[in-house]
Hints:
- This protein has a two-stranded antiparallel sheet with strand order 1-2.
- By secondary structure, the protein is mainly α.
- It is globular.
- The mean pLDDT is 90.
- The protein has 9 helices and 2 strands; from the N terminus they run E-H-H-H-H-H-E-H-H-H-H.
- It has one domain (3-213): Alpha Horseshoe (Serine Threonine Protein Phosphatase 5, Tetratricopeptide repeat).
Amino acid sequence: MPITTEDTLNWLRQLALVLHEQRTYLTELDSAIGDADHGINMDRGFKAVSEKLQTQTETDIGSLLKLVGTTLVSTVGGASGPLYGTAFLRAGLATAGKRELYAADYVALLEAALEGIKARGKAQPGEKTMLDALTPALAAAREAAEANLDLVEITRRASDAAEAGVQATIPLIATKGRASYLGERSAGHQDPGATSSWLILKTLADTYAARSSQT
Length: 215
């Protein structure tokens, strides 16, 4: 069963609620190694996304994801806006015109988002950034797709791999972004950007699995 336009809308609406609920948590993580505004920024950005979705008439997934990207670029401060904005814009291009996503489409979406973040942030895995959650997520999704698993399992494995990636950021020394100013003192702290990346993938996996269980 594919991920539909309606599934995408449900995911994005629920994501706005999740990021609002996790606003304080993400900000606390960011207060240790950043500007203490990541939760605030993500909440503000996806609240704006949720408001725009109320009047959205587009029926293809690519257009919805591009809308998210442009909204985040214009409303989210710091590094998160440009990075997540680019990720969603690239994901939108990868799914342009599609009203249903299958396994290969989901993998292509993740790959496009990841490459967008790499290009925009000039970062690589292992530097204590959101890439440390998204890179293993893509690898897990690709492996699951190649094994011909269904999309519920593919999205869940991507989410689980991202969560493991988040935990793996704790001992890392940041070499990119605001956290890099702390040098070795950044070790021992969980990366907030990796955490929000995991929440994005987890919310997709959760909302899609919930809908699939009802059919």
